[in-house]
Amino acid sequence: MSSLFIFHSFLKAVLLGICTCTYLKMKFPAILEQRTGFRGFFWKAAIIGAKLSTFTLNNNYPSSVWPAILTSSGPPLSITGIELPLKASSFLDVSATWSGHIWARNQCANVNGKFQCQTGDCASSQIPCNDVGGIPPVTLAEFTLAANNVHVLPSTNLSIVAPGLMAYSYAYDDTIALASCTGGANYLITFFP
């Protein structure tokens, strides 16, 4: 029984260390920049402790859409564009320090070996956008997770519903378009006509 308590105490100490490193990395990033050696151990603990948010992308548009992702700051996502068939969902895990845009492209096709979309195209000639933004008209969902802000910047191609936001709201003109959420939140992003 005593070894169980020792392990329990050890586990508490490890979790406390991870949380402390994560906090220090967020507040004082220069302290944990070194990724090797003794300080590298604490850098790794901070990465492990970073909260993740999950974006759930839903397609309520009457046909396939191709959501695109552009990272502004924070760790880049491995996925920068996907096909999302009618009524399908996809999930993306992002770090709590991620900032960027998500939008949907529609009326897409492969033309002479190049992927092209009528709206929201990123001109990458393929489904992944590879860190290239959308060509207007495009409705953007803009996320700054570290500051807990979500904006929807509307246009005419598709509508987006994000947490409590409608795509026809203007980010800086009214309080509806700017939402503040707690860190580590999960977001449901729905594309519709």
TrEMBL record:
Principal location class: Golgi
Protein's UniProt keywords contain Membrane: yes
Highest taxon above the source species: Eukaryota
One of the Pfam families matching this protein, by short name: Thaumatin
Recorded topology in the membrane: Single-pass type I membrane protein
SMART domains on file: THN
InterPro entries, per database record: Ksh1, Osmotin/thaumatin-like_sf, Thaumatin
Compartment(s) of residence: Golgi apparatus membrane
Keywords: Golgi apparatus, Membrane, Signal, Transmembrane, Transmembrane helix
Cited function: Involved in the early part of the secretory pathway.
Family: Belongs to the KISH family.
Protein name: Thaumatin-like protein
